[in-house]
Amino acid sequence: MASTELATERALYIGIAISTVIYGGNLFLCAYSTYMLMTSSQPIQLRLFYTCFGGLLLLLLTISSASHAAFCELMWIERRNNPGGPPAFFAANLAAWYNVFGTAADCASNILTDGLLLYRCYIIWESSLQVIVIPAMMYLGSSSMAVMMVIESAMPMSDIWQGLAAQFGISWVALTVSFNIIVTALITFRLLFFHRRVRSALADEQRSVYTGTVAILVESTLPFTVLGIAYLATYIQGVPSATAVGMIWGTFVVLTPQLIIFRVASGSAWSRDTGSKIAQTTTNFLRDLSSDSSRMTKMHP
Known about the structure:
Elements: H1 2-38, H2 44-78, H3 85-92, H4 97-124, H5 133-153, H6 163-197, H7 204-211, H8 213-219, H9 222-237, H10 241-266, H11 274-299
């Protein structure tokens, strides 16, 4: 029992340390993307949307990070001498208002991020509603489970790591990870398809902007999906490391869309007409190639 409690506290400490570093990256990306958006020539509606969206996500991450810091400060410093010590405080205050507030911020940021990913998938597939029907249903299900988990975690003596709150929590994470796997697969397939299609029509630099490794990793949110699978596995098992993985995953919930917003701000993200432009470029290239071949044939029969 003592070893489990120590492992949980260690995981909490590691999670906070790594999350703080990633928070700094989120802060920089949000500030830099905002500057790039405000000085770009893109439509004002798009600039305002992504600026407000990125700012709101950063605010939610700040609330979540502050709640974790407050909880740990009380547990390890202010009330470390309470009966039972830090382990007893940890168990008795999981349903404290600041923890529930932080959990609600995490869930809200996840709902917003998944919504953006669903929209990006819709854009990359050239506004095809048929493609996003199943992901959209999973998105609604995961959002519902997130709300139910927050409500249940606010009940007195509730515990998000066990009981009914944990059941809602596992359902939420399972649905959102499944959603991310499907969306990641759809976007990756689409980008790889265009990568093969334009391999001979575009220069390496032009091709890498929309279908290169960085584009695939950012647009498909592959790192976020892999980390979500790891979090789901540890959450289901109920191991102490789930605390650290969950906190890191929570920061990636915000980091992932911030990277997409950065690509939008820099003008390298996919838009509604990117696919058609690439297809037109490829068609023109093949037509020119065919014309050149015909001309050479006439010159050298």
